[in-house]
From TrEMBL:
<dbReference type="GO" id="GO:0015093">
    <property type="term" value="F:ferrous iron transmembrane transporter activity"/>
</dbReference>
<dbReference type="GO" id="GO:0015341">
    <property type="term" value="F:zinc efflux antiporter activity"/>
</dbReference>
<feature type="domain" description="Cation efflux protein cytoplasmic">
    <location>
        <begin position="232"/>
        <end position="308"/>
    </location>
</feature>
<dbReference type="InterPro" id="IPR002524">
    <property type="entry name" value="Cation_efflux"/>
</dbReference>
<feature type="transmembrane region" description="Helical">
    <location>
        <begin position="202"/>
        <end position="219"/>
    </location>
</feature>
<keyword id="KW-0812">Transmembrane</keyword>
<dbReference type="InterPro" id="IPR058533">
    <property type="entry name" value="Cation_efflux_TM"/>
</dbReference>
<feature type="domain" description="Cation efflux protein transmembrane">
    <location>
        <begin position="36"/>
        <end position="227"/>
    </location>
</feature>
<comment type="similarity">
    <text>Belongs to the cation diffusion facilitator (CDF) transporter (TC 2.A.4) family.</text>
</comment>
<keyword id="KW-0472">Membrane</keyword>
<protein>
    <submittedName>
        <fullName>Cation efflux system protein</fullName>
    </submittedName>
</protein>
<feature type="transmembrane region" description="Helical">
    <location>
        <begin position="33"/>
        <end position="59"/>
    </location>
</feature>
<dbReference type="Pfam" id="PF16916">
    <property type="entry name" value="ZT_dimer"/>
</dbReference>
<keyword id="KW-1003">Cell membrane</keyword>
<feature type="transmembrane region" description="Helical">
    <location>
        <begin position="134"/>
        <end position="152"/>
    </location>
</feature>
<dbReference type="InterPro" id="IPR050291">
    <property type="entry name" value="CDF_Transporter"/>
</dbReference>
<dbReference type="Pfam" id="PF01545">
    <property type="entry name" value="Cation_efflux"/>
</dbReference>
Length: 328
């Protein structure tokens, strides 16, 4: 009886075996995607590297360096997916999902290094121009880079959206951008074939700029995750779900955060103060149940029920000086 009463008065969490199985399957699919895309990009970059060696194309070199960097981004992200499968502990009470954000920081550094390397080589070639050889092979290498990146992009984006991994989707969009920079190598080869030797290093600079733009977007996404930012539309949806739950008289604070590729929520609702403890508990459970099933990627919710009434009674007066302001 004591254990039953303790469960009634504590916040409620909707963690279940089904949700655990879903999380494990999501991580497994993410690992498969990363393994296959790592192999595809590595083969693509190695093929390009061979052509760089005998062609001397700095534009192709920049694209090759970036493709190697793209392949390497799968390593920290794969480690993060593997860590995210571990169960929560008494020290890491929310589990290890935040490892994805740390992997994101590593990815940002890798992209930055590839941008610096590509830009340096392009500037050096502008200062000391060299003829580009085997232009047909250079053009072919650019096409290989585009096809490899586009396949990886489609695969990462599709699975990333299915499992709710923003990091995997962002990495897929990154690969798509790289595919178009590979096509830019064709422009460099075409310019050189038409007797404009500076076309190759100039395209190399354009590729460097494209890498920097990708770096900016990736850094912004990781910053949002580290700061626990979520799309305000998710809060609007959660508030509508809560307001439509039978027995809910009002909706208070609603907070969400990403932990890996899953959302967690903490919400306050108001229920009729005449309800019994069991009845108020039932309303909270129903609110939690609806949230988990109607808000995409939400895997756990903690619902706090406050009595609505009587009158203007403040049931948290003792905590007034300790509470943080609610969201604007």
């Amino acid at each position: 009886m004591a254990a039953w009463l303790s469960h009634l008065v504590t916040p409620h969490s909707h963690d279940s075996a089904d949700k655990t199985d879903t999380a494990l399957e999501s991580s497994s699919r993410g690992l498969r995607v990363l393994g296959l895309s790592f192999a595809a990009l590595t083969v693509t970059a190695l093929a390009q590297a061979v052509i760089v060696a005998f062609s001397g194309s700095v534009a192709l070199l920049g694209d090759t360096l970036h493709n190697f960097a793209d392949a390497l981004t799968a390593v920290p992200l794969g480690i993060a997916f593997w860590l995210g499968r571990r169960v929560a502990t008494r020290r890491y009470t929310y589990g290890y999902g935040k490892a994805e954000d740390l992997a994101g920081l590593v990815i940002v550094v890798i992209i930055a290094v590839s941008a610096i390397a590509a830009g340096y080589e392009a500037v050096q070639r502008l200062l000391a121009p060299q003829d580009v050889r085997a232009l047909g092979w250079v053009a072919a290498a650019g096409l290989i880079g585009f096809l490899g990146n586009e396949w990886v992009a489609r695969y990462r984006i599709r699975v990333g959206r299915e499992i709710g991994s923003a990091a995997l989707v962002a990495d897929g969009l990154h690969a798509r951008t790289d595919g178009f920079t590979s096509l830019a190598v064709l422009l460099g080869a075409g310019g050189s074939a038409l007797g404009f030797p500076l076309a190759d290093p100039l395209v190399g600079l354009v590729i460097t700029l494209a890498i920097v733009m990708v770096l900016r977007g990736a850094a912004r996404e990781i910053y949002h995750r580290l700061m626990d930012a979520v799309d305000p539309a998710l809060l609007d949806q959660a508030e509508r779900v809560l307001a439509g739950t039978p027995g809910v008289r009002g909706v208070g604070a609603v907070r969400m955060r990403w932990i890996g590729h899953a959302l967690r929520a903490e919400v306050d609702i108001k229920v009729d103060h005449h309800l019994s403890l069991v009845e108020a508990h039932a309303v909270a459970v129903e609110a939690e149940h609806r949230l988990i099933h109607q808000v995409a990627r939400l895997r756990a919710a903690t619902v706090h029920a406050d009595p609505h009434g009587p009158g203007d009674a403040d049931h948290h007066a003792a905590l007034a000086s300790h509470r943080e302001p609610t969201t604007a």
